[in-house]
Amino acid sequence: MKKLRLFTPGPTMVPEDVMLEMARPMEHHRTGFYRDMYKEVHELLQYLFQTQASCPIFTGSGTSAMEGVIVGCCPPGHKALVVQNGKFSERWTKVCQTFGIDHTVLELDWGFGAKADHIRAAMDADEKIDTIIVVHSETSTTALSDVESIAKLSRERDALLLVDGITAVGAIPVKMDEWGVDTYVTGSQKALMLPPGLGLAAVNDRAWSRIDSGTMPTLYNDLKAYRKSLETWDAPYTPALTLVRGLLHVLRGIKERSLEAIWAETSMLAEGTRAAAEAMGLKVFATDTVDSVTAILMPESVDEGALRKTMRSKFGFQIAGGQGSLKGKIIRFSHMGYVDAFDTIGAIAALEMALTQQGYGMRIGAGVSAATAIFADKMK
Ligand SMILES: *Cc1c(COP(=O)(O)O)cnc(C)c1O
């Protein structure tokens, strides 16, 4: 059996103690067992999102929670602005189209994050916009949006701000209440180091009053049903309680370590990886780089597909390629969850080996050396 190290930006590696926790015998969910568990999970989710808002747990991947939030917060009579700067933000436009939500799209070049100025201009041009949909960390392009200043603008304009934080929450600073974000969403298989299957949301009172103000054609992801069951620490349909059990274990660990320590480690891994890429004569793709995942441009001479195949089948490192127009052009390394400096040094070494085998000219060890110097300094 070969060792596989997952460096994809979701799913990410699941720690052994989390897997063991989820291997325990099944329980029933309409019981004190589930209510007590959800109560504690809820308190810890509020810590994770840095909020006092309520936190429904959707059975489904991150998309289910984001769809529920968009549909709930955009009933007829409201208009959304979707900032589209990559593959995932395109999906939120698709949700608007699917449900007939009045919306307008603000397109940004890939590799750039959303900023308050972009949104201010779009809102000045269309007074009907009262809902802003932004991806905090656009995993497909590895671009970071300035959520704090966008939230400030949304307060000034009395608009709701819905943020896809799927590769932000638990990886990079997220301060929902301090910034004034109305809904944040994440999924279990990214920074939370769990298998896929949970969509996690935080929904504040401003968002709930919008949700209550209208009716939309939705059932399974209907936030109104989630809110009702939240009152008794229950779920509207059978929850994925095995995953919730794993979630409790993970969140206790995150609280114990502290978010600040996790944010600092993610940032260090990203800095080391970016420095390694440069030392190898490669270019980091994004302009507004995010720390949860790094995209590196592949030189024309390198066969990106073959490179990733070598890294996986020969060296045991699964990394991600590009999506959409970036397919074949970039490779991506995750810095989220159960991954540390030494795993990352290994991934950089594997990249150096795969590149060298393809005839790419570089001094072997250059990337490892650059990253190691940074980790040695930060881990004093
Ligand atoms: C992974 C991801 C999603 C999609 O989540 P699923 O869990 O696959 O539904 C959405 N947005 C971002 C930014 C992501 O990284």
Description of the molecule:
The structure is a single chain. The chain has 380 residues and is α/β, with parallel strands linked by helices. It folds into two domains: 127 residues, Aspartate Aminotransferase, domain 1 (Alpha-Beta Complex); 242 residues, 3-Layer(aba) Sandwich (Aspartate Aminotransferase, domain 2), CATH 3.40.640. It is built from 14 helices and 14 strands. The strands form four sheets. A seven-stranded mixed β-sheet has the order 2-10-9-8-5-3-4, with helices on both faces. It has a three-stranded antiparallel β-sheet with strand order 11-12-14, covered by helices on one side. Strand 3, helix 4 and strand 4 form a beta-alpha-beta unit. Helix 2 crosses helix 10 and helix 13 runs antiparallel to helix 14. It starts with a strand and ends with a helix. The mean pLDDT is 97. The site of pyridoxal-5'-phosphate (PLP) has 13 residues, from helix 3.
Would you kindly provide a brief summary of this structure?
This protein is an alpha/beta fold and 380 residues long. It has helices spanning 16-22, 32-49, 62-73, 87-98, 116-125, 147-156, 176-179, 205-212, 223-230, 241-257, 259-279, 304-313, 341-357, 366-378; strands spanning 5-6, 57-59, 79-84, 103-107, 129-135, 137-138, 143-144, 160-164, 183-187, 198-203, 283-284, 293-297, 317-318, 330-334. The chain folds into two domains: 5-10 and 258-378, Aspartate Aminotransferase, domain 1; 16-257, 3-Layer(aba) Sandwich (Aspartate Aminotransferase, domain 2), CATH 3.40.640.10.
